[in-house]
Design brief:
Elements: E1 3-4, E2 7-8, H1 9-28, H2 31-48, H3 55-77, H4 95-98, H5 101-105, H6 109-120, H7 125-132, H8 136-154
Antiparallel strand pairs: 1-2
Helix pairs in contact: 1-2, 1-3, 2-3, 3-7, 6-8, 7-8
Length: about 160
């Protein structure tokens, strides 16, 4: 039986299912598309069966692959995603954050990813830089600009 950082495939799905689903929804803003990319992420894990140093490495790999699968899907569709699908985002986001879901969906993906990973998944900026494979200063500026854009959309002081 293949293990991933000490976890079985089923345990990986159980542990990271919510995080992958939420990230897919934040990226795609459509439930059906998010389900497809969710499935493709875990299929890739199963097929490639990479070795991981620890669970943090596994989690970072899953986030990176999820973003890549969503980007591939967006490129393949070559259409604009409709914001009407955003109501699905509130399915398991904390009550105090759910009112930001709609505003978050209006941001460009580069801002949305950083804000989501930092505030919803509680990643440190250095970890986000590693996961997204970008420089730390880029993460800081995208976070700052994203917060400013959210503030404009939301119409008040947030985050």
């Amino acid at each position: 039986m293949v293990r991933f950082a000490g976890l079985t495939f089923e345990e990986v799905i159980e542990k990271y299912s919510d995080a992958v689903t939420k990230l897919c929804l934040v990226r795609l803003q459509n439930w059906a598309d998010a389900q497809d990319c969710y499935q493709n992420t875990f299929i890739t894990l199963y097929q490639k069966a990479p070795e991981f140093n620890n669970e943090k490495h596994l989690e970072a790999w899953l986030i990176r692959v999820t973003i890549n699968k969503c980007n591939d899907y967006i490129r393949s569709q070559k259409t604009t995603i409709q914001l009407e699908q955003a109501e699905h985002l509130a399915f398991s986001i904390d009550e105090d954050k759910s009112d930001l879901s709609f505003a978050l969906c209006q941001l460009k993906p580069k801002y949305r990813d950083i804000i989501y990973l930092h505030y919803y998944e509680d990643y440190k900026l250095e970890e986000i830089a590693d996961i997204l494979q970008i420089k730390l200063n880029t993460v800081k500026s995208l976070l700052k600009r994203g917060k400013e854009k959210l503030k404009q959309i939301y119409g008040g002081e947030i985050l």
